Structures are given as C-alpha cells and as structure tokens.
Amino acid sequence: MHSSELCMTLIKVEHELMLRDLSISLPDIFQAMNCDMSMGDSSLETEVSELLTQLETIVKPKFSFFLAEGNLYNYQSLLNVGSQSFSIGKVITRQLKKSEGFVFFVATAGQEFEDWQHTPAIKNDMLKCFIADSIGSLIAEKTADAMEVYLEKELADDIHHTNRFSPGYCGWHVSEQKKLFSLFPDKNPCGITLTDSSLMLPIKSVSGVIGIGKEVRKLDYSCRLCSSENCFRRKHF
C-alpha cells in the first residue's frame, strides 16, 4: 500500500502549540513528580500553580512528523526505511507488526522552556528546579499526545496507528537517534539538535516512530516487560 492510500494529506507536518492547548492539570504535574496530591500540601500546590502560570506566556511546544514507507523484518527485529536500518528490538517489532507505513516524529517543550528552566530563579531553587523538570517532561509528552491526535485526523478512515516508540526504550538503542534524525527533511526539526551522544537539545524533547495500517492497533505498553527504570511511562506502572 502506498503512502497516498494511508492518509488524506499527510506528507510532512510541523506545528506550534500554546501551553493551554495541552490541557495540563495540577494532578498531571503531581503524577509526573510522583507525588500524592491527596496529601493536601497547599504550599506545594501554590508553587506548582505559580510556575505553570509563568509558563503560559513563555513556552511554545512544537511537533513535527512525516510518513515513510519501510520494511519490518520480524525475526531480525529490524526496520528498514530508505538507506537506514533500525534495530528496534523484539518488543517494538511486535507492536509494529502489520504496519503498512511508518510515521517518524519529534515533539519538544521548546527552547523557550529550556531558557526559562535555566534562569537563576529556577535553577538556584531546588524545589522549583524539581517541579520545572517534571513540568518539562510532561509538556514534551503532552505535545507528543497532541501530535497523535493531529495524526489521527489526517489518516484515512480505515487506517489505525500503534503507540509511539522512542530510541532509548524497549530495546531500541539511543544511538540510533542519529539515524532517525537523518530521515527528516529538515536537519533540525522543531529546532532540535543532537549531541555526539545522541542527546536531544532542548532536553525536554521526544522522538520516535508510530506504525500505521489497516490491521494495526494501539495496544497497551509492555512496561512490565521493560527493564528501563527511567522511562516516563514506567512511573505509572
């Protein structure tokens, strides 16, 4: 099946959001901080609310994605797209099975958030620094969620999509981040750059792949099978 049959208008998309578009709530942030909001710490709630209010006029989250044709080799746990071959591991391979196309994406809290996070008022206060770090991770993930919603609207009616999967998790080595970025039409999608160690800058950014096709489904993440202790989603299992 060709790309044109999988979607209506999807070729390459880059979109900028505002913080209010992400519908981030206090419970969301407390969950990201792994804190129990029911404990009723009003001073912490006030601190979180004040920082979130500051960010409303500062942050400019962005996402970018494009559709590519590729070949998935189940036994080798390989995904070949163009000249690149990704060793994505067994967990992701199972999830992408039956995909007819692959959407590569990036999403970021943006440079504006990173600049704010490194202001003296934040970095010199341990509590604010902790809260800001949690909010930044949440913004990046919520931006990726918004990207999925946008993607769903662009897909043909009979086309479904999988969960999203990122280098560094589920057996997919982070070093393959460079291969992923090499596929983007823009060298630095959403202004994101890579360090020599494949770290994304701004740090509060995510990237990865989503499978699409008539027979794929968005299944539960296999977090209980994963050995990564630093995964954002693992906090909820």
What does this structure look like?
This protein has a single domain (about 5-235), classed as NADH Oxidase, CATH 3.40.109. Helix content is about 35%, strand content about 20%. The protein is built from 8 helices and 10 strands. It has helices spanning about 5, 25-30, 40-55, 90-95, 110-115, 120-125, 125-155, 175-180; strands at about 10-15, 60-70, 70-75, 80, 85, 100-110, 160-165, 195, 200, 205-215. Strands 1-2-6-10-7 form a 5-stranded antiparallel beta sheet, sandwiched between helices. A 3-stranded antiparallel beta sheet has the order 3-4-5, with helices on one face. A two-stranded antiparallel ribbon has the order 8-9. The longest helix is centred in the middle third of the chain and has 29 residues, at about 125-155. The protein is globular, with a radius of gyration of 18 Å.
